[in-house]
């Protein structure tokens, strides 16, 4: 039974069992499939799910027949934790963050958590300061100020 559990773990998490280097988001060691993946901020997911919800309401006389509990809970979650509600603001946030050569992972963490200072941003996303691509505190502060302006005028 114990051997079976270890085998399942090895299949699901091969690097944890094989001695390979473990994943570490702080150093952007998150696996190639995640580095290449398109990530979405909560506010983007919220817009997508809202649109889908509206489509389902138009198709069905009783919209609750078409919406699963998982869908409903997911929509509630992303709405609750979305920092930006306006579609134009969401687009502006992605544009601002994209200008700074961030990975999708970094972009989404910053867009979701909205740090207020460079120190907070680096604490949340330590890879901002890795060798070869280190962002200066001034550049990070400018990026965060641009984001706060979007939020203020939303």
Automatic annotation (TrEMBL):
Principal place of residence: nucleus
Highest rank taxon of the organism: Eukaryota
Keyword Nucleus among record annotations: yes
Keywords: Nucleus
InterPro entries reported in the protein's UniProt record: HRDC-like_sf, RNA_pol_Rpb4/RPC9_core, Rpb4-like, Rpb4/RPC9, Rpb4/RPC9_sf
Secretion signal, residue range per the UniProt entry: none
Record-linked Pfam families: RNA_pol_Rpb4
All copies of domain RNA polymerase Rpb4/RPC9 core, residue ranges: 32-154
Compartmental location: Nucleus
Keyword Glycoprotein: no
Family of the protein in this entry: Belongs to the eukaryotic RPB4 RNA polymerase subunit family.
Name under which the protein is recorded: RNA polymerase Rpb4/RPC9 core domain-containing protein
Organism field: Brassica napus (Rape)
């Amino acid at each position: 039974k114990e051997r079976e559990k270890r085998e399942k773990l090895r299949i699901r998490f091969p690097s944890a069992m094989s001695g390979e280097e473990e994943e570490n988001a702080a150093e952007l060691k998150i696996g190639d499939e995640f580095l290449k993946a398109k990530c979405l901020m909560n506010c983007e997911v919220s817009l997508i799910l809202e649109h889908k919800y509206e489509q389902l309401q138009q198709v069905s006389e009783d919209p609750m027949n078409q919406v699963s509990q998982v869908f409903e809970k997911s929509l509630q979650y992303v709405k609750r934790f979305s920092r930006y509600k306006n579609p134009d603001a969401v687009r502006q946030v992605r544009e601002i963050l994209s200008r700074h050569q961030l990975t999708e992972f970094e972009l989404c963490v910053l867009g979701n958590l909205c740090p207020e200072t460079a120190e907070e941003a680096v604490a949340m996303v330590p890879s901002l300061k890795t060798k070869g691509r280190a962002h200066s505190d001034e550049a990070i502060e400018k990026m965060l100020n641009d984001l706060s302006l979007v939020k203020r005028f939303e």
